[in-house]
Specification:
Number of helices: 9
Number of strands: 0
Order of helices and strands: HHHHHHHHH
Radius of gyration: 29 Å
Structural class: mainly alpha
Largest sheet: none
Number of domains: 2
CATH class of the largest domain: Mainly Alpha
Oligomer: single chain
Bound molecules: heme C
């Protein structure tokens, strides 16, 4: 190997180094837009904490709401469900299963209804008031992959009324939880 070849090799290594460095700079430039975002956000927080901070999680005093919930009002609100569900004892399934006696029963409680895999996989779980709250409040949010295509009831008082109605709609209504808080 003569001196000229060594020079070529050295030059090649140098070029490779420069390319790596430039690539580094380029990727930094490409990712740069991320930085101002972060900075802008923290500035917003110091200037206006209320607007910038995420909303504090609302606690729903479901026990209290249940204590004064109207079963009749719940029955009325449950008309929203009647496109897909029947409520009376022994009535047929529709798009969704019959819901007689749902409080305290297992998930996927009807043997003659074809549930989603997501619902079937929870068969060991009991439909207590808390589980029903989360599911009826946000079906997809509570059980990802459920085939219940319903937006959910958002108003806590309406939720309490529906739950009181579902509980009453049974051979053996359960004692409603008094201290239940939902986060
Ligand atoms: C658009 C149709 C539709 C509407 C409206 C609807 N549901 Fe459903 N519901 C379903 C289907 C379908 C299932 C089965 C879900 C699965 O298998 O994932 C279901 C399942 C359920 C279950 C679980 C039953 C079980 O056996 O585990 C409950 C509880 C329930 N619905 C309550 C309600 C209530 C209360 C309302 C009204 C506030 C409502 N649903 C509105 C279609 C509907």
């Amino acid at each position: 190997m003569n001196g000229l070849e060594l020079n070529k090799i050295a030059a090649a290594i140098l070029v490779a180094g420069i390319i790596a460095m430039v690539a580094g700079i380029v990727s930094e430039v490409l990712y740069e837009p991320e930085h101002p975002k972060t900075r802008g956000f923290s500035v917003a927080v110091t200037e206006a904490p209320a607007a910038g901070a995420p909303a504090a999680p609302q606690i729903v005093e479901l026990g209290l709401l249940l204590a004064s919930a109207s079963i009749d009002k719940g029955k009325d609100i449950a008309k929203k469900c009647a496109t897909c569900h029947t409520f009376g004892k022994g009535e047929a399934n529709k798009i969704g299963p019959n819901l007689y006696g749902i409080v305290g029963s297992s998930h996927a409680h009807k043997a003659d209804f074809t549930y989603s895999d997501a619902m079937k996989s929870l068969h060991e779980k009991t439909w207590d008031i808390e589980a029903l709250y989360h599911f009826i409040n946000s079906p997809q949010g509570a059980i990802k992959g459920t085939k219940m295509a319903f937006a959910g009831i958002k108003n806590p008082e309406e939720m309490a009324a529906v739950l009181a109605y579902l509980n009453s709609n049974s051979d053996s209504p359960k004692a409603l939880p008094k201290d239940l808080k939902i986060k």
